[in-house]
Design goal:
The protein is built from eleven helices and four strands; from the N terminus they run E-E-H-E-E-H-H-H-H-H-H-H-H-H-H. By secondary structure, it is mainly alpha-helical. It has a single domain, classed as Arp2/3 complex 21 kDa subunit ARPC3. A hairpin with a 2-residue loop joins strand 1 and strand 2.
Length: about 230
């Protein structure tokens, strides 16, 4: 079948739905408040599992899963389609693309965000904040390392979300400066969570790979703690 121009087999589509359902469950558990959001919004455990779909299903399949989760959660929670809701649709989508891509040019997303941040009048005064996005640029050369890949993915999401918040809400320079230490702790936690989730899902899939045909997925057996 074709979905948004993407050719998807019936087994892969069924897995996307299953993985999206699991991701949606993670979405219901808050992790930390998004500073500067009004009304208050929160990062959730979806930050841990969302990006890994790009590694297991493929970059486009992972991005599709993220989109399904975001849209479904929007309708289930009955939220108003306000700017902050729209802004939150995109960071995890790009994180899944980054995590699933083996190409170094996946870092272009963060590079573009860095330029956009510096071009904004407020962003230009706190230009050093955007230096965080050198991390996904550097991590793109170490995609063979899971934690580097996870850091790159979460900071890609961070770059997209930050630029969107900057242009949508014009957060003052003081807010960005205050966020610097919070971002370091927060993103390290997200990268750790992404790595743990990737190990967990690969372990489960690897354990059943002798009984179920998972040839349509990208199971990285080196990240499976136990496999059949």
């Amino acid at each position: 079948m074709k979905l948004f121009g993407l050719e998807i087999g019936s087994k892969k589509f069924a897995f996307i739905l299953l993985f999206s359902a699991l991701s949606l469950l993670f979405y219901q558990f808050n992790f930390s408040e998004i500073v500067g959001s009004e009304p208050k919004a929160y990062f959730t455990l979806f930050q841990f599992i969302g990006p890994i779909g790009g590694g297991i299903i493929g970059p486009l399949g992972g991005a599709l899963s993220v989109l399904l989760v975001e849209v479904t959660n929007f309708f289930l929670t009955g939220k108003v389609l306000d700017p902050i809701t729209v802004v939150r649709f995109f960071p995890m989508l790009f994180a899944a693309l980054y995590f699933g891509s083996k190409r170094k040019d996946s870092a272009f997303i963060a590079l573009a965000c860095l330029a956009l941040f510096w071009l904004h009048p407020i962003g230009n005064t706190v230009w050093f904040y955007a230096l965080y996005w050198v991390i996904p640029l550097a991590a793109a050369f170490y995609k063979h390392n899971l934690f580097a890949r996870s850091l790159g993915a979460t900071f890609t999401a961070h770059s997209v979300g930050s630029v969107a918040f900057l242009y949508a809400f014009n957060l003052p320079a003081e807010v960005w400066i205050g966020l610097i230490p919070i971002v370091a702790i927060e993103r390290f936690a997200f990268a750790t969570g992404i790595s743990v989730c990737y190990y967990a899902v690969n372990t489960v899939l690897g354990a059943f790979s002798s009984k179920v045909d998972f040839s349509f997925l990208n199971i990285e057996k080196k990240y499976a703690l136990w496999r059949a």
